[in-house]
Amino acid sequence: MTLVIEVDQLTKRYRGADSNAVDGISFTVKSGEFFTLLGPNGAGKTTTISILTTTLAPTSGIARIAGYDVAHAASEVRQNIGIIFQQPSLDTNLTAEENIRFHAVLYGLWPFYPTFSTMPSDYKRRVQELAVLLDLENDMFKPVKKFSGGMRRKLEIIRSLLHEPRVLFLDEPTAGLDPVSRRSLWEYLRHVRRESVTTVFLTTHYLDEAEEADTICIINQGKVVSYGPPQEVKAQLIDQYLLIDAANREQLRAELKRLGFGFSETPLFKIGLNMHSAQQIIKAIETPLTVVKTHIPSLEDAYLEIVGHA
């Protein structure tokens, strides 16, 4: 697959700062990929996404979007990206369609006409397609002030996809949404990816949202501290283990020693799964067990360990 984002030794130091906000980070994103940038507050996420979306100039290094250098071809970069910021940027006094129409005119996609009915047919067709995709076809001519938080986010997605961008940047897109709206929004985003093969670049504090990413990049203090598919990141940093216990703990302890299973007591018997599967261990034990728990690390576990070590 072709690379749609290329970042090489990207650095940003703000005037008067003692250290770099972004300190020589490098990563790539393939076309159609779901890529997530993670890190604590102050790690450099916002600075990185600001550089990639051409709202901030880098101090050094290279960043390209769809082959265009963000520092020297900003206009071409903007034509290939869509952005949904953490804070909504809609005019609530306008209708949903009016918000979209003014955005289209600002992007130079279509000339301005005073009403939806007088706009070119390809504009109307594109708006209707996206409205159906995001389940807003019955709300396009309603004022945005009457929209829920989830509906406003969906409208921002429609607006950001209008010019068919190669990359959709999502900066904390579900911040402030209730759990139902968060789930609904991600269902629509998955649908958008399937239908338009859009590359999604996400920053989020909700680590469960990053579990589905093809690749995650964790940065801390301006540096990349972990990079790769979620499963690899978790496997490299955190052990999987089995927790067991028995009414006859002396018998279980002696049997584990006899079988050669390394264990610790925490106070449950903790057995690492590096050499054996949980099924193999349980099948080999004859002592009746009262507790059997398998610990499979989450991305949150890995993230906390990575950031803590960094």
CATH fold field value of the largest domain: Rossmann fold
Distance between the termini: 32 Å
User: Residue-averaged pLDDT, rounded?
Assistant: 90
| Number of beta-strand segments | 14
Description of the structure:
Helices cover 35% and strands 24% of the residues. By secondary structure, the chain is of the alpha/beta class. The strands form three sheets. A six-stranded mixed sheet has the order 6-7-8-3-9-10, with helices on both faces. A four-stranded antiparallel sheet has the order 2-1-4-5. A four-stranded antiparallel sheet has the order 12-13-11-14, covered by helices on one side. The longest helix is centred in the middle third of the chain and has 18 residues, at 179-196. The two termini are 32 Å apart. The mean pLDDT is 90.
